[in-house]
Each structure stands twice: as structure tokens, then as C-alpha cells.
Amino acid sequence: MIEPHPFLAPDFQSKEPKELALLSIVSQSFFQPFSVEDNLLVILTALTSGSGVGFNRAMLFLTDGDRLRGKMWLGPRSAEEAQSIWKILSTPGIAYIEIIEHNRSLLTLEADSLSRRIQPLEFSLAGDNLTIPVTALAKNEILLVREASREMFIDPRFLQAIDVEEFLCVPLISQNEVLGEIVLDNAFSRQPIQPKDIKLAGLCGLLAANYIFTATLHRKMIGMERLAALGEMSMFIAHQILNPLAAIGGFTDQLLAGPADETKRRRNLEIIRREIQRLEKIIFELAHFLKVEPKTPAPFDPEPEIRAVLQALELKAAAEGRELTSLIDDRLPPILGDPTYFGEALRNLIINAFEASPPGGRVEVRAERKDATWVVVSVKDEGRGMPPEVRSKLFTPFISTKDRGMGLGLLYVKRVMDACGGTVEVESEAGRGTTFRLSFRAREERKLDA
To answer: At what angle do helices 36-47 and 195-257 cross, to 10 degrees?
Structure first.
């Protein structure tokens, strides 16, 4: 027997705190800097929370061209493990990163073969004689299947893999684009799927579909932005490199033209060396900027990284006649990001502050906990400050306030902050110095019981 259900029932009124908590967790996927796979795993976890919703396992299929392919299958291996999952989700103040880490541990368990069972499965989305699970996508309906072994409209490979008599197919469709499907069952508890569970699954399906659509659109936009930036960069590099190359070529020709007095020969060689050094600097800055690779943010202790950067720059500050001071909260929690990129971004800001400050000026570095969610690292200088028209272009590539600057340093900092889900803010006023604030997501140190 197969029953169709609408996505949004008009009488849906969730009064269960657990259900609201699950929807809250799922909705966070839109704002977290983790991979699409990690965020989808959180959605599957929200649907496989034992007594919290009523489903034991969640199977995810994603579309690939005109094919529907098995991606991952998350769920407990017993009724006891189902209760354990809900216990984790109901932990007061649980952080999103902790759910991510728990999910990864589940998928890496040697005994977990669920995902391996469905990843070889794929189904055609084309044709007229479609079978379940594709039927739900073709009709854009949630399908509740009971007495599955008696149904002739179920693909036998799928039925063999899922090996239950009752399951729920939730299509993932957004903006009329077919994106995938979630299949849910109660393989261990054997509890019948209730109408309220179907309604909640429909809401989660809508959220998951819109998350996948948004993430895909974001990747496309990033690709377009990269192409546009590549064009700008090519023109800029050509301009930057042609000038020193022209100087090198001209003075080399003079040396090759014939004998010259020692003074002229030495002058030409010094000019050539200076222009080569300028080219090396251009190449170094470009390589430094381009090496930022998106990584899944991981928690780390920021204090040792901050102190390492400060120690490395103390000699530079003294040599340039500037004062470098710091005020670091001694109880900073771990933050999400990459420690190497974090250190490079902070170093970048401090060196910029040195260059902006007058001789004898002070550069102050602070690190403090803003609240339970954020840690702020700031760098303040005593320079001339910036008017609004300059601040608005700070993170535009190839625009710099320095002579012969490439305008990539602050863009590098912004790329680092974007990659870890943080923010960078600038407070500046002409004649009153500048403060850069880097805000990182904090993570409480707390162990979870699996």
C-alpha cells in the first residue's frame, strides 16, 4: 500500500520541544561553514534521533545528471544506539561542531556498512516506467510505503538494500530542480510511521532541499567570481610585471651594447637587481594569497598561535621603533578555523599596523571572549586612520593604500575568515587610527558519550 502526503499540512502545530530542537539544528545548516556532506549528515542525524522523532535510519540519494545515486545512510545499529543518538542531541547547549564530530565517528565505524550498501545503487530519472524510490521525485510527493514486499512498483535492488516492510520517501526538490531524496525507516524499533513524523520529515526535506540548492548556487557564484577575479588579476599582473621587465630589458641592452665605465655598469646592475627583487615580491604575494584553500574548520587553542606571532614580530617592532603590546584573555576557549591561516592573517594585520603607525607609535593586540559564541582578536594602530571611501574598498583585490602595494593582504585575511565562518570588521577614522577585529566561532570543550 502506498499513500501520498503533502509537504506542508495546514494543521501542523509542533508542541514537542524535541521536535523544535531538531528543526533548530537542521536550520543551522544554512549558516555553518562545514562541507555540504557534513551539514547533510546533521540533517540525517536530526531525522534518526530514536524516540525524538521516530525514525531509526535515514538514507540519502542525490541526483547526478539524469541519475539518482546513493550517497550515505546514517542510523544506529540497534535500538539502544538510537536512544544514544537522541541523548547526544538533547545535551544542553550542544554545539553544531560536536554533532559534526559525532556523525563522522559513526561513519568511520568499521562495523557500519549502511553507506556501503547503498552507494552502488543508482536509478534513472528518465523514462515512463519509474519505480520507487524515483517515483517520489517524479510526482514530487512524500510516499509512505507499507507491506513493501507486496508492491510491484518498487525497484528490487532498492528493496533488497533497505530490507524493511515500511519506509518513507521524501523528495528533495527546490525551485523546480530535482536534487535528491531521503528515505526513512524504523528498522530496529519496528514502530509504525506516524502522521506527525511524516509532517516533520516533510519540513526537514524542504530545509534539506533548499540547503542543497543554496549551497550549489553558492558554488556556482564563487566560480563566476573567480573567473571575473582571474581576468582582473591577469590585467593587473601584466601591468605590474611589464614595468620591471621593461626596465630590466632596457638596462641589460645597455650593458650588452658595448664597454661602459664601471660607474654606469654598476648602476645598471643595481637597477636590474632591484627590479628582479620587485618581481620576486610580486610573485611571493600572489602565491601567498592564492594558497588559502577551503578546509573544514576544526577547533584549536588560539593563545599559543597568538603568542608565537607576537614573539616573531617583537624584533621587527623594536627595529622600526614601534611598541607592540598585547592583552590576551587567559581563559580563551578553542575556536574554529585553521591555526596556520589564523597565524598568517594575524601577522598580516600586525605588519599593516606597523606600516600605518608613526615612529614610536603603539600597536595593540587583544584577544578576548565576546560571549558564549564568539572570540574576538583585534589589532589597533595609532596611524592616520582612513576615511569612509577608503574603508569601503579595503577588501577589493588589487586596490592598495600603500605605494606599490598589490592590495592582496587584507583580501587574504578576509578569505581566511570566510573559510572558517568568521567575520572581519574595521573601525577607523581619519586622524584617529584603525582597529581590525577578527571574530571566530568559539567551541566549548566538552566530551560527548557515544
So the answer is: 170
CATH class (in words) of the domain with range 295-450: alpha beta
What CATH number does the domain located at 2-220 have?
A: 3.30.450.40
Strand 57-64, strand 177-185: pairing = antiparallel
Residue ranges of domains in the chain: 2-220, 295-450
Query: What are the angstrom distances between the C-alpha of 21 and each of 15, 105, 208, 436?
Result: 11, 22, 16, 36
Give the helix/strand (H/E) hosting 431.
Answer: none
pLDDT tens per residue across span 96-152: 666 666 666 666 654 456 777 888 899 998 877 789 999 999 888 999 999 999 988
d(CA 44, CA 41): 5
Q: Is the pTM of this model over 0.90?
A: no
329, 368 contact by CB (below 8 A):
yes
Q: Kindly report the number of other CB atoms within 10 A of residue 300's CB atom.
A: 18
Helices then strands, each counted (H, E), the chain: 13, 14
